[in-house]
Write a structure and sequence with these properties.
The protein has 23 helices and 12 strands. The protein is of the alpha+beta class. The strands form 3 sheets. Strands 3, 5, 6, 7, 9 and 10 form a 6-stranded mixed sheet that branches. Strands 1-2-4-8 form a 4-stranded antiparallel sheet, with no helix packed on it. The chain has a two-stranded antiparallel ribbon with strand order 11-12. α16 runs antiparallel to α17, α20 packs antiparallel against α21 and α22 runs antiparallel to α23. The longest helix is centred in the C-terminal third of the chain and has 22 residues. The chain is globular and about 75 Å long. About 4% of the residues have low confidence.
Length: 610
Amino acid sequence: MNKYRFLFFLGLVLLLFSICPINAQTYTTSDGHEFSVSVKPEKSTIMLGETTYIVFEVKNNSYKNLYFADGGDYRNNLGRPESYSVTVVRDDGKKVPQPKVTFSMGGLIGTQVVPVNGSYTRKLFLPHWATFEKPGTYNITVERTLGIGEKSVLSLRKPVKEDAPVISSIKTKASTKITVKATDEKALGEVINDLGEKMLSENNKDNARNALMLLDFIKDGRTIEYWIRALDMYSMSSDWDTHQRFRQVPVILAKYDTPEVTGVLETAIKSPSKEVRLDVANALSISSDPKALQLLISMHDDAYWFVRLRVAQALGKLLTEESTEMLVAMLTDREDSVRDSAANSLKARGKMPEYVPLLPMDELACPIRQTSAVKSMQNGDSSGNDITGESNIFSMANCAEALEAFTNEREEHKKTENKFGEGWVLVQLGDIYSKTKRHDSAYEYYLQALPLFLHTNNDAARSVLYDLASTGMLMKNPSVAIEHLNVLLSLTRNHANKNIRSNEGGVLSRLADAYKAAGNTAKQVEYLKLSYDYELKNESLFSISNAARDLAVAYEEIGQRKEALHFYRKALESKEKAVSKSGSSWLVIPENKADEEIKKLKEAIARLEQ
């Protein structure tokens, strides 16, 4: 072989290595398109205390563009894409512990294009899958099932049509290595400086965000100067990209409890951006610096209602006379969520005033049901309504304007004897009065709507009965609530629809609550027993557990410890079975919430066993 031929083949080998990484695994789709998958760390060597990204790459070695779906998997407590499986094992065979995902709620999904001779890369934040505790060499394996084909497809879960593109569901797997060294403080300082400057100066938004996450992982006081500079940029900028890059910065900064940090957050309170002020309020609410709480409280009259809500929530944790006075003042806030938060805190500490001034209707916003039976204030899509006229779609309108519009429309329906339309207008009027805490008026309008739905044999009557019962309780008239709930119970038990009949346990439970409010504990326990028996017959483990817990609490409150202990044990038994049977308990309730409920049941049992 002459030297020219040798150089040609050497160049060809080098070219092949540049096209396919050494650790790349090659796959072929069912219609003959070849692609490779590889992974590599952005930094092959890191120190304890810093981290890096793992780059997952799909390279197209075929003559046509390839497509696959990515996303729909990142809405969880970590924010990691769950369709990727990442395992990390030290060279001595010991598996590295992983953070636990406690809930998962999907996310946005899209089709990714892998062009001819091109590639698609996805960066995976290593701490989402591995917690390094010792130096060493670690093997990292990434697995991902790709629904890949030569035409744009979004999901393999859709029904396959005759003319659908050919999709191959291929399980891919690739591995790489990373070295973790002991921490070198000087070298770590250089890493901090590099990441800090990149975060602040990088023009590419994604690169800047990646640098931010890497810097946030490093828990070191030397990072503070970069967070302060980032907060200055964030609080003074009106640029949308800057806002998206640095929204996490106030909360990150608040974890460093120093006077310098608190001073910077105090300056950011004056930002003209409501988003910045909200982020600062969130940061102050988690800070352990005593001054941070006072700074948060100083934002009680902020123009942005969300900031005021954070203040109300913080005040709810302070059991002082000053906090009580401020919460009472917030009962007349123009935003209902702020008023509700203040009211809940005051009720919990037994300081809720008997009389709270009502705000004028024209200063309040009310939710408007987008039902096809009503034409006034209808701005949304009401096409999804069923024959009852029910709607889960709402828009907001000024309460006074809505009140006038619905009052006028009611007269139109009365003239044309449209009982269905008039009934829903009356419900809208009742909703307005209910939302603005005018419960007596709300009750009267719901009461007028009920016979119109009963007359037309419309199933919306059940919804109105719920409204009447709830309003009766708010009026502190449980006998009224009991009257309407008994009618609702009869309609539910005799309904032709099995799903509606399955609500019987919930109605019985609400009747128990009403009897408790009326001071009739014997009836309360009677209806809780009926609810428990119904759920047993219905065989829903979570519902059985909740009904048994409510019954146990009632028995404990009236001093019947033996019965209370029995039903706490029944509640625990059903809850543990439900969680075990569902596998991933977050499919029904978040896992951390299930754990918390089980813990409370065990504590109640231990308390009564003493």
